[in-house]
Description:
This protein has 9 helices and 13 strands. By secondary structure, it is α+β, with helices and mostly antiparallel strands. The longest helix has 40 residues, at 202-241.
Amino acid sequence: MYIINRDNKQSKKIEAITFSSLGLKERDDLQEWIVKEPTILGEELLIIQKEFSGFSDTNERLDLLAIDRKGNLVIIENKLDDSGKDVTWQAMKYASYCSTLGKEGIRKIYQDYLNKTEPGIAAEDKICDFLNKSDFDEVQLNHDLSQRIILVAREFRKEVTSTVLWARKFRIQIQCIKVTPYLFDGHLLLDTEQIIPVKDVADITISLDEKAHDEIATGAEIAERELIRNRFWDELLPKMNAKSQLFSGISTESNHYDHWLTAGAGMSGLGYSFVITKKYAAVELGINKPNKEENKKIFDLLIEDKENIEQTFGSPLSWQRLDDKKMSRITYILEGVNVFNENDWPQMQQFLVENMIKLNDALKKQISRLKQNQ
C-alpha cells in the first residue's frame, strides 16, 4: 500500500505489519471490527451470534454466525497472522452442525444475541428489514441447506488454500479473505482482499464451479442409473433361466450391463437382446456381423419367411433393415414402461421372458438353416 502526495507526485510505501506486533487479539479486536462493520468482508451480512456454542454434544464455538442477503447461513472463522492448518476442517464441522438449524432455531439464536446487544429489539423484525420482507412468514432461512463459510486471516497456509480450492469444486461455498493491518501516522489501517475465489474473476470461477458440479452430478446420475439397471438384470436372469437356457451363460458377477443384455443366437454375429429404457422394453434379434452387406443379406433372407415367423411368434414383429447402419434387427416392443420405475418391473420382466422365448422359437429354424448355408 502507498500514500501519494498529489502535489509533488511522490509516493511513500506503507509497510504491512502483523497483528501480534501491535498486541491485537482475534476475539477482542478482529472479531469486533467485523461485528461492528460486516462489510469489511466485502458484502452485507447480518451478524446473528458470536462465540456460538449451541451445538448438542460438543463444547466447540464458532467465531461468528451471520445471514447473507439470500437468507443463507454464513459461518465466519477468524484467525490473526496465521490461518493454521486445521481451520478448514474446523469451519466445515461448524457448517455441518449449522446444517440442521431451521427457521425458528435461527430466530431464537439471533434473539438471544439481541437480548444482550440490543434489548427490546425483535429478531424477526431485524431479519425482515435485512432481507427486505414485510412479514416473517415470507422469510426463508437456511432453506437450501447450503451453508457458506468465510475464513479470515492475514496469511493462509498452503494446506488451507489447497483444501478450499478442492472443496469449491464440489460446490462447497467457502471463501478466503486476507486481512492486512498497516500503521500510518498513528492510524491503524486495515486492508481486506478476497483471495479465493479471486474477486475480479469471481464470475468466471463460479461458472467453472457450476460446470464441475454439473459434471459431478451427471456422473452420479449415470452411476445411479447403472445400479438400477444392474438390479433389474439381477432379478430378470433367474426368471429367464428358470424357463430357458438361452441366457444361462450370462453371469451378473462378470458382466457390466448397460440398457441391453445380449446372448448368442446360435450363429456368429447374431444375438438375442433384452432392451430396457425409460420409455419401453424390447426383445430383439440383432444381426451385426462385421460386413454390412452380409447383414442386409441375412435380414432379407429372414424377411422372406416373415409370415411363418410371425405366425409362430404369435404377433407382428418390427422388421428394421436399417439401410443407413451396418446392423439390422427384428424386434418386439412393449411401450409405456420405465426401467427406473420399479413398479413397472414385474410387467417388464414377464414381457421380456415370455417374448424372448417366443422369439427364439420363431427364429431358431431359420437361423439354423442360415448357419448351414454359410
